[in-house]
UniProtKB/TrEMBL annotation:
Taxonomic path: Bacteria, Bacillati, Bacillota, Bacilli, Bacillales
Protein name: Holliday junction resolvase RecU
Keywords: Cytoplasm, DNA damage, DNA recombination, DNA repair, Endonuclease, Hydrolase, Magnesium, Metal-binding, Nuclease
Gene from which this protein is expressed: recU
Residues with site note (Transition state stabilizer): 103
Binding site for Mg(2+): 86, 88, 101, 120
Organism, as annotated: Planococcus maritimus
Length: 200
């Protein structure tokens, strides 16, 4: 299936370099699951127990061409991203609107700010302005560490980058400015347990 960007440009991998398959972390601690998988399971846990209603936002895609090789099957051959997506998750918790982005990095010593897009920063700033709670959940996959980073802190380091400063947050900066969430079993990433600290 060909997915094109809003400007119509098609993605094609470089022909001179072989495409390398990304190795999944299949350690016992997370059994190869991505941060998105873990958050989806966590959010299902919250919903089933009446703790919060939080869902992953669908990516806005416009389907252009579909083929029907048989009556019971349809194959999407061409689609376009309609607009840049905002953040990954949103919902309600204790009467408060929450909105957050989930990012993971294999880098052990820093979190690259290029993983965040400018329109996402503006979106989260709007959420805060209207009384919502916006934050980032960062997973350092090689360390199996999870952090909840308040938007206000992200904005500080984002502005530092825009002013010509460092283009990443060091692990020490993340540790100092975030709340670490220890992975568990049920739920896997209990980020709701630390949200009260973001509101103080």
């Amino acid at each position: 299936m060909a997915i094109n960007y809003p400007n119509g440009k098609k993605f094609s991998p470089p022909k001179d370099q072989p495409v390398q398959k990304k190795k999944k972390d299949v350690s016992f601690s997370n059994r190869g699951k991505t941060l998105e998988d873990e958050l989806n399971e966590t959010n299902s846990f919250y919903l089933q127990r009446g703790l919060a209603v939080i869902h992953k936002k669908p990516v806005p895609v416009q389907i252009v061409r579909v083929e029907y090789p048989s009556r019971s099957a349809a194959v999407i051959r061409e689609a376009y991203f309609q607009a840049p997506s905002t953040t990954d998750y949103n919902g309600l918790w204790q009467g408060r609107y929450i909105d957050f982005e989930a990012k993971e990095t294999e880098i052990r010593t820093s979190f690259p700010l290029k993983n965040i897009h400018e329109h996402q920063v503006h979106h989260m700033a709007d959420i805060i302005r209207h009384g919502g709670l916006a934050f980032l959940i960062i997973r350092f996959s090689s360390l199996d560490r999870y952090f909840v980073l308040p938007f206000e802190t992200l904005e500080t380091y984002w502005n530092r980058m825009i002013a010509g400063g460092r283009k990443s947050m060091t692990l020490a900066e993340v540790e100092e400015a975030s709340i670490e969430v220890k992975p568990g079993a049920f739920p896997r990433i209990d980020y709701l347990s630390v949200l009260h600290q973001l509101m103080t």
